[in-house]
Design a protein that fits this description.
single chain; 14 helices; elongated; mainly alpha
Length: about 300
């Protein structure tokens, strides 16, 4: 007897992705899918003919798809509504979304419309479609301002914007938008239990903006654009007064002024060396034991020497 050959890996992948689509997990057919992709494969040896096994898999696929299509085409709106909720609760957000979309206009103005709108937003959220989720969460809060879930949805709208914020090296338009929406939530619901979380998220986003600005300022210094570096570092002290990088920033301001003076024409050097000395004094006043002491002292002494000559 010939041993049963392993089930082809590419077929397993095809089955897996055909069901999971955009969702991280499925709903009504979640158990079936995992049964297909894991349980059945592990026990494929029970079938002598691997092609029989493949036929069974195909039947399962078409059966599940056929059931969903029948529901979609049905004129029974209550059946669609119950199926949509069932899909949602089982984690099949893709199919739930399709059914909710078909029912929105029909149930507009009813209690079910509010429920569907809530699930509708979460369907997008659970599929990582944060931009659309943010829009529909906010629309729910605006459409049902007195609803029990209005506060939750307003927070989720802002939170989705937070999730859209990219790493610090990229354009930070989304980060500014997230900060604005989180602050709006705090203003609208000052007594909310989510206020502390919102403030923490804002702090995290501001830290990202600070890191970007700090890196830009250092890049100006590195590329010898000293005037731009001075402006950028000074802005950091104004925009982020509670920064943990204050010692570094003050040192870089000193360094920028010093090298700016060195590269300047003679008529401008005196005032710029004086600015470097003032920057040194600011650094030493706040950080008398600064880790930049040796380098800072050297620039300070040289600047004083240049002024006195």
């Amino acid at each position: 007897m010939n041993p049963v050959k392993p089930f082809p890996e590419f077929i397993r992948l095809m089955i897996f992705f055909s069901f999971f689509r955009k969702s991280n997990e499925t709903k009504i057919f979640t158990v079936d899918f995992r049964f297909v992709s894991v349980y059945f494969v592990n026990f494929a040896g029970m079938f002598r003919d691997r092609y029989i096994f493949l036929v069974l898999i195909v039947i399962l696929i078409f059966t599940s798809c056929s059931k969903h299509q029948k529901i979609m085409k049905s004129s029974d709106n209550e059946l669609k509504y119950e199926a949509a909720i069932d899909y949602y609760e089982r984690g099949d957000y893709y199919r739930a979304l399709q059914l909710f979309e078909s029912l929105m206009g029909i149930y507009r103005g009813t209690a079910k419309a509010e429920q569907m709108y809530y699930y509708y937003a979460y369907c997008y959220y659970n599929q990582d479609e944060y931009l659309l989720a943010s829009y529909y969460f906010k629309r729910y809060a605006q459409s049902y301002p007195n609803a029990e879930r209005a506060e939750e949805c307003m927070f989720m709208s802002a939170y989705c914007q937070y999730l859209l914020s990219p790493k610090f090296s990229l354009d930070q338009t989304a980060t500014y938008e997230a900060i604005k929406e989180l602050q709006l939530f705090i203003d609208l619901f000052p007594a909310s239990s989510r206020k502390e979380t919102s403030n923490q998220l804002i702090d995290e986003l501001r830290a990202k903006l600070e890191k970007k600005d700090f890196e830009i300022a250092k890049q100006y210094l590195k590329t010898e654009h000293y005037q731009a570096a001075i402006t950028a570092f000074l802005n950091l002290t104004k925009d982020y007064p509670d920064t943990e990088n204050r010692e570094d920033i003050l040192y870089y301001i000193l360094k920028s002024y010093y090298y700016y003076a060195e590269k300047s024409i003679e008529d401008k050097q005196l005032e710029r060396y004086q600015a470097a000395i003032e920057a040194y004094n600011d650094l030493i006043y706040l950080y008398p034991e600064t880790r930049y002491g040796k380098d800072a002292d050297g620039m300070h002494q040289d600047a004083r020497k240049k002024i006195n000559n």
